[in-house]
Sequence to fold (405 residues):
Amino acid sequence: MTRLLVRDLAQLATPGGVGAPLRGGELREVAVLEDAFVLCRDGVVEQVGRMAELGALAADVEELDGRGLCAIPGLVDCHTHPAFGGDRVEEFSLRAGGASYEELHAAGGGILATVRATRALDETGLRARVERHSGWMLRHGTTTWEGKSGYGLDRETELASLRAVRAAGGEPTWLGAHSVPPEAADADEYLDFVLAEVLPEAAGLATAADVFLERGAFAATQARRYLAACRDAGLALRLHGDQFTESGAIPLAVELGARSVDHLEATGEVGARALAGSDVVGVLLPASALFLGRPMPPARALVDRGAAIALATDFNPGSSFTTSLPLVCSLACTQLGLSPAEALSAVTVNAAHVLGHGHDRGRIAPGLHADLVLLGAPDWRYLAYHLAGDVVATVIRGGMIVHRR
Ligand code: NIG
Ligand code: FE
Fold:
């Protein structure tokens, strides 16, 4: 039995949201305790309260001095692409000079450049990359993360990507329909192949499936076929949708009962209302919009119409080379018009719901995983206030200190 007491915290801040993702005004309901403690036991939170309520403790409890620090739940990154080889720094430089992301993709660069670099790695090399990326996430306070495949697009590399995410402690999502690889004649032929040859094994390794529904990637009819087969194989469903064009991702997500539709930079009023009226979570990726110089998603309209939203990094080499959820919270407040409370709910409990972990992660409450971030700040809102996101002092996962600055 191991017990850890985090004591004398300046503040402890946690969202609610027990049974379902928080939506609309519920996202603002963050509970803040001053002069607080958290007691962890065997990997879960045992007790939370004010220091004045802390009773006598046994001698074997490890104590952590929380003076000058604020505790929030461990952050949950529900959308990342960590299984890749190489980098896209050359493409980044070309884009800085005016080339567009879609042009580079159409010319065989973009995602397909990373597919070539990822296929060139053996499984050990791929695992080392994912392990390194998960270390970056941890230092930014991410204690639970989802990792997609999608840079293999062949049987061996897709399955190796899913195994690498699982081995590094992530929740694997099979993004088998990310792009059409050069050896396939077209998207339909490629889907014939992945659904017959990759899905049976991918369904045993991943917990969800994802598709890039977009001009130049997969059309709505193709996305429906892929997702329906994945659902029948037992996977939860996610979609990359409305990144550049409104291509029917929201109606398809609602029709199929997907967990989320992610990006939404091109979503208009009709789409926002449809999403807000459904149980699908809108996952907003402002770092990706910033990195590509694209319009920001309509976060304020979504929340004001009652939608459930989450925020994530979209960490990947091409459109969002960051693993920092604190930075994403800053962007949420400065670019999306969200409040720090809405941002906190979106990177903790709601992101946990997107991963099927809303019941045991994303909040600080007795019985939940003892995953905490201690911010080196006098007020928990520094999570978003510090623009560089440089506020994470200590990370606790499963009741153990796993990172300390
Ligand atoms: O979510 N949009 C599709 N996929 C990724 C980017 C992939 C890449 O550029 O390598 C995204 O932004
Ligand atoms: Fe993505």
Summary: The longest helix spans residues 123-139. The CA atoms of residues 179 and 217 lie 5 Å apart.
